[in-house]
Amino acid sequence: MRRKRVLPPAMLTLCAAALVGTAPAVASPQTATAPARPAAPLRILLTNDDGYNAPGIRKAFDRLTAAGHDVTIVAPLTNQSGTGTKMSNTPTITVKHSEPKVWAVDGTPGDSVAFGLSEVFEGRAPDLVVSGTNFGPNVAGLATHSGTVGGAVTALESGVPAIALSTGGLSVPDPVTTVNAMGPTLDFAVKLIDRLHARAKSGPLLPKGVGLNVNHPVVGSDGRGTAAGVSTTFQDAQTILEPDFTDSGDGTWKVDVKVDLGAPAKGGDLEAVSGNRIAVSPMSANWNTGPADHATTAALIAGLRP
Predict the structure, then answer these.
(1) What's the pLDDT at 57?
(2) Alpha-carbon distances, residue 208 vs 126, 157, 288 (angstroms)
(3) Which of 133, 181, 270, 296 ranks highest by number of CB atoms within 10 Å?
């Protein structure tokens, strides 16, 4: 069963409001408007699934730090792409702290976030967990198995606001253009975080239990182009990648992966990214579906007894 992250309409409205401009208030002629004071820097735990030294997370560290935030990397020691929400079940874990503000955890993104919240930020949780930016997209079925999204989900389970960031189109990622596109991705991320910070004032950055899965397309021949816009989206139901197994005849099977891309669902993340728009999908950390599915299930089991 694929995880469905279905949120109440009120939460969708709140998330959408963070992405659109609001009309400026008109000051009364008799009332002087107090000058706006800059918000205090956010304390950000930065993780990913590509590894603590990958270009995406290092660029994110530099860009978020330049924006004035207090950023600490707590990320996997090695590439953990595709690990989803996996948490290691071992009696010990290796952690390297060879650089200031950088912790490399020999485990999954979930392990990294768990260690960061428990030890690095012990006693005072970060204001935000940012996971990424990932090399390649995390839309549709890719998001379900994404370690980038999994790191954000681990934060949400602990009550910490989280944003998953990914950079990539729907074709096989090209190293040069994808890394170039991480620049516009992080420029948008800073704008989004600033918007959330300004709207939250001294409150939480996002509604309780809600995170954002942000997918930025690769635009232009060099990847440095500007996206066509921003869309509030949902996770498309397509799997995109289909495994194919071939029997080698010796007890082993050769594994191939085929791309199976259908027409994007209207309003979904695939549609947005394929149209060179930034997809922002609200997500929750649990497996709950909406009230309609709950009612259907209740009808299916009505009258059953142990």
Answers:
(1) 98
(2) 15, 10, 15
(3) 133
